[in-house]
Design goal:
By secondary structure, this protein is an alpha+beta fold. 47% of the residues lie in helices and 20% in strands. The chain is built from seven helices and seven strands. Strands 1-3-4-5-6-7-2 form a seven-stranded antiparallel sheet. α2 runs antiparallel to α3, α3 packs parallel to α6 and α4 packs antiparallel against α5. It is elongated and about 65 Å long. The N and C termini lie far apart (47 Å).
Length: 218
């Protein structure tokens, strides 16, 4: 997410100071302008959009920001947005490498605007979780059903969730239906909850227990 400090667009480009969540490292930081825009060239061509490159002050990687140009005397811009895919935040604490890799690939699909690819990788992530856990298929299916019930989602959502996340014990899976952006966002919430339930929450509890000093147990 991009945000501005002080002057807000629409405004003169040189007056804008921006920052936000870095699409590379995921941290919230200021963005420092790296490359001066060749304004004379851009003005002569009367371009409607420009990209200005900043760097993230946290990781120093480049962050291109796309602006719509209002006018060129001086350069005034609006509608700022980061011009690289933004990966959805996800808590990977205590997540095993096999699950971590598939979830990251799924998030890359989502950030690239490929909801069907994301859904397919959600199914793969569920399969990996089932392989990793004792009695995994039964536990995952039960948790998915409970998430649907507690969320108050209707039968259509339940069918999509079960097709995506609840692996069948006979090894046969029905084809996934076509998934749009709205459905992909719901699947993302379900994936977050599934990973949190089986890895992050118990891992956090184990870490807290291991951190206790002998005096605190006496």
């Amino acid at each position: 997410m991009l945000q501005f400090y002080g002057t807000q667009p629409p405004a003169s480009l040189n007056s804008l100071r921006c920052g936000g969540t870095c699409p590379h490292c995921g941290r919230v930081a200021n963005f420092t302008r790296m490359v001066d825009l060749m304004e004379n060239v851009a003005k002569s061509w009367k371009v409607a959009q420009i990209i200005v490159t900043y760097h993230c002050d946290a990781c120093l990687r480049p962050v291109p920001v796309l602006y719509d140009v209002i006018d060129w005397d001086p350069t005034r811009v609006k509608n700022a947005r980061i011009a690289v895919p933004e990966v959805e935040p996800f808590d990977f604490d205590h997540v095993p490498a096999s699950v971590d890799a598939v979830v990251r690939e799924a998030l890359a699909c989502l950030s690239a605007g490929a909801p069907n690819g994301f859904a397919a990788l959600c199914r793969r992530a569920s399969e990996v979780i089932c392989e990793d856990l004792d009695d995994g298929a039964t536990r995952v299916q039960a948790h998915v059903r409970e998430m649907i019930r507690s969320s108050g989602l209707d039968a259509e959502w339940e069918r999509l969730a079960l097709l995506t996340f609840a692996s069948r014990t006979d090894g046969e899976s029905e084809p996934l239906p076509s998934v749009d952006d709205e459905q992909a966002r719901v699947l993302l919430s379900l994936l977050r909850d599934l990973v949190y339930q089986f890895y992050t929450r118990p891992g956090n509890v184990r870490s807290a227990a291991a951190a206790r000093t002998p005096s605190s147990t006496g």
